Amino acid sequence: SAVQNRGLGCGLTQNRMLVTTVSTSFVVQLALIYVPFLQSVFQTEALDLFDLCTLLALGAVSASLHEARRQYERKLNATITFSSSVEELA
Questions:
Q1: For residues 6 and 15, what is the distance between their CA atoms, to the nearest angstrom?
Q2: b/e sequence 45-70, b meaning 16+ C-beta within 10 Å
């Protein structure tokens, strides 16, 4: 769709709104987990190091797979664009 393809040419850090939103969400989540006052209000507790590393590893795998899919789609779109250009010339 047009919305999905819009981000294919944009680098990961070029979308300032996305970076700001993700960063703000990350900071708020850390505050909810690690600030003692918020822990009592939201009934959360700090993660131990193993759990935190596991979550970071899963996030890294997910981000890597997403970026690999984006690169594949870029190459696929470039091939399709090239093929249609050649067909128009013929």
A1: 11
A2: eeeeeeeeeeeeeeeeeeeeeeeeeb
